[in-house]
């Protein structure tokens, strides 16, 4: 086993409240938001205070705890009926990361067994979801790193680290493990327009871990690959469909196309809570579109020509045929197909 020193947690439960690091302010301001209602939790997910598919799911699970507390206060006998509105608000906070809906289902499945105050039972369940996510990340870190050659560089996109998960990270977990074991010598990170998760969050996490990181604009990825610097592209996922198609941060699909052209391997790292066996292919995934202002403005300042329109899909779908391996805590799926996905997930979902 590799030694783990990672302690950063984006989502914590303290003093009977949900505490979120405000990721919109990182890395230069470290502010914690304390939330006491499910409605505020849904708003925080929508507003990107917390982001990253597993972290969104975990936050929603704690949101259900807050919802149940409020509903039970209103009516100890009728809380299960009263909680519906809050669960709907949580479900409507963001559409693409399936971990959100998975976590809500996990929590709701417990309701029928609860007698009396639901809070202790639901809090334990939310904490268990977070602990299981961290354990999955450590496992995937080792499994993913076992695919890497010795002493090479990798390219990653968006932020998939402690901030995006229960802790440690998916793609960044593989990178952490790969660096600790000497397989990775250098990390290239896309800045990830327009929210700059790469520049603000991934670079911050890697610098803290003393892992050498070089930022590039997404448009530079092809030129970097052409130089022969990158052995693997390693990314996370927001939803993986039954055929192995992967929705992830906008720009991921470009990287997969580029990687194939340049003979570079492409790895997706995600826990089974990101797998949606109900959808046959990635074409059925709802892709979130956010406000055009996120593209037209930067740091509150208009940068684009006044009058220009903007298109702001925040995820894209990478077809399974461009993916060399999907790493999950249930195992690795090489050259994913529906049959291979079913063999791993249908038995257990
Ligand atoms: C382990 S995080 C995996 C994905 O959620 C991540 O790559 C991503 O696309 C995050 O998007 P975001 O819009 O920041 O929530």
From TrEMBL:
Single Gene Ontology BP annotation: L-methionine salvage from methylthioadenosine
Q: Where is this site: Transition state stabilizer?
A: 158
Which Gene3D superfamilies does UniProt cross-reference here? Answer: translation initiation factor eif-2b, domain 1 (1.20.120.420), Translation initiation factor eif-2b, domain 2 (3.40.50.10470)
Q: In which pathway does it act?
A: Amino-acid biosynthesis; L-methionine biosynthesis via salvage pathway; L-methionine from S-methyl-5-thio-alpha-D-ribose 1-phosphate: step 1/6
Instruction: Kindly state which reaction or reactions the protein catalyses.
Output: 5-deoxy-alpha-D-ribose 1-phosphate = 5-deoxy-D-ribulose 1-phosphate; 5-(methylsulfanyl)-alpha-D-ribose 1-phosphate = 5-(methylsulfanyl)-D-ribulose 1-phosphate
* Enzyme superclass (EC): isomerase
InterPro entries documented for this protein: IF-2B-related, IF-M1Pi, IF_2B-like_C, Initiation_fac_2B_a/b/d, M1Pi_N, NagB/RpiA_transferase-like
Give the positions the UniProt entry annotates as the active site.
238 (proton donor)
Q: Which GO terms describe its molecular function?
A: S-methyl-5-thioribose-1-phosphate isomerase activity
* Keyword field: Amino-acid biosynthesis, Isomerase, Methionine biosynthesis
EC annotation from Swiss-Prot or TrEMBL: 5.3.1.23
Q: Which family does it belong to?
A: Belongs to the EIF-2B alpha/beta/delta subunits family. MtnA subfamily.
Q: Give the protein's function.
A: Catalyzes the interconversion of methylthioribose-1-phosphate (MTR-1-P) into methylthioribulose-1-phosphate (MTRu-1-P). Also catalyzes the interconversion of 5-deoxyribose 1-phosphate and 5-deoxyribulose 1-phosphate. Part of a bifunctional DHAP-shunt salvage pathway for SAM by-products.
Q: What protein am I looking at? A: Methylthioribose-1-phosphate isomerase
Q: Which organism is it from?
A: Beggiatoa alba B18LD
User: Mind giving the lineage of the organism this protein is from?
Assistant: Bacteria, Pseudomonadati, Pseudomonadota, Gammaproteobacteria, Thiotrichales
């Amino acid at each position: 086993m590799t030694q783990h020193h990672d302690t950063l947690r984006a989502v914590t439960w303290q003093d009977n409240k949900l505490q979120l690091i405000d990721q919109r302010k990182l890395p230069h301001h470290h502010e914690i938001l304390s939330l006491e209602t499910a409605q505020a939790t849904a708003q925080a997910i929508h507003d990107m205070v917390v982001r990253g598919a597993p972290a969104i799911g975990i936050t929603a699970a704690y949101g259900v705890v807050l919802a149940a507390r409020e509903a039970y206060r209103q009516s100890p006998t009728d809380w299960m009926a009263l909680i519906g509105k809050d669960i709907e608000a949580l479900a409507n906070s963001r559409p693409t990361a399936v971990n959100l809906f998975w976590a809500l289902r996990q929590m709701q499945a417990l309701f029928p067994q609860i007698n009396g105050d639901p809070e202790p039972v639901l809090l334990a369940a939310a904490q268990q979801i977070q602990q299981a996510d961290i354990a999955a990340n450590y496992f995937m870190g080792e499994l993913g790193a076992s695919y890497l050659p010795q002493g090479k560089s990798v390219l990653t996109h968006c932020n998939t680290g402690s901030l995006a998960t229960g802790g440690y990270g998916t793609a960044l977990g593989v990178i952490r493990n790969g660096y600790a074991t000497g397989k990775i010598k250098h990390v290239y990170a896309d800045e990830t327009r327009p929210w700059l998760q790469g520049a603000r969050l991934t670079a911050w996490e890697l610098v803290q871990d003393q892992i050498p990181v070089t930022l590039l604009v997404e448009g530079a990825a092809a030129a970097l690959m052409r130089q022969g610097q990158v052995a693997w592209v390693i990314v996370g996922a927001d939803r993986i469909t039954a055929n192995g198609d992967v929705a992830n941060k906008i720009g991921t699909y470009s990287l997969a196309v580029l990687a194939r052209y340049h003979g570079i391997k492409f790895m997706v790292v995600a826990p089974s809570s990101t797998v949606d066996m109900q959808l046959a292919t990635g074409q059925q995934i709802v892709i979130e579109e956010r406000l055009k202002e996120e593209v037209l403005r930067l740091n509150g300042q208009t940068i684009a020509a006044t009058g220009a329109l903007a298109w702001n899909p925040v995820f894209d779908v990478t077809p399974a045929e461009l993916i060399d391996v999907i790493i999950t805590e249930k195992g690795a799926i090489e050259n994913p197909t529906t049959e291979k996905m079913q063999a791993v997930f249908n038995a257990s979902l």
